[in-house]
Amino acid sequence: MITDAVDLLVIFVLAVFVGFEVISKVPSILHTPLMSGSNAIHGIILVGAMTIASQAHGSLQMSLAFVAVFLSTLNIVGGVVVTDRMLDMFKTRQQPKAQGRAGQDGTGK
Predict the structure, then answer these.
(1) Which residues are CB-neighbours of 52 under 8 A, at least 6 positions away?
(2) What spatial distance separates the first Cα and last Cα of the chain, rounded to whole Å?
(3) In angstroms, what CA-CA distances link 86 with 27, 29, 35?
(4) Contact 39, 32 (CB under 8 A)
(5) d(Cα 67, Cα 61) in Å, to the nearest integer?
(6) Per-residue model confidence as pLDDT tens digits over 67-94
(7) Is residue 81 within 8 Å of 93, Cβ to Cβ?
(8) Which residues contact 32 (CB under 8 A, 6 or more apart)?
């Protein structure tokens, strides 16, 4: 039992290091597509958490399932908000239309 926990801990630590190295090498221009991909992955995680919640028995399993559903939903919403803000940076601002030559200097002439 202890060796299984150690094996899982080693896999988790290696996944953290690999994930950090992969994400840190992504250029800034690719952050928006990367966020969209991670939002899709978090959607799959939410479906998995809801599936586990539907089969939970006991208060501990139900509470852990609720926490998993809540955190994955929060992660999806946060990712969508961040992606929306990033896409807003690329939009061009439209300047108001000129009223015509007579009204430009404020004199009306």
Answers:
(1) 65, 68
(2) 89
(3) 14, 10, 10
(4) no
(5) 10
(6) 989 988 988 888 888 778 877 877 777 7
(7) no
(8) 83, 86, 87
Residue 49 burial class via C-beta count within 10 angstroms: exposed 0-12, middle 13-18, buried 19 and up: buried
3-state secondary structure of 92: coil
Two structure tokens written together for 30: 């690719």
Residue 60, burial from CB neighbour count under 10 angstroms (0-12, 13-18, 19+): exposed
Per-residue pLDDT of the chain (109 residues; tens, 9 = 90+): 677 878 888 888 898 888 788 777 777 777 667 777 777 788 888 888 888 888 888 898 899 889 989 988 988 888 888 778 877 877 777 766 666 555 555 555 5
3-state secondary structure 21-86: HHHHCCCHHHHHHHHHHHHHHHHHHHHHHHHHHHCCCCHHHHHHHHHHHHHHHHHHHHHHHHHHHH
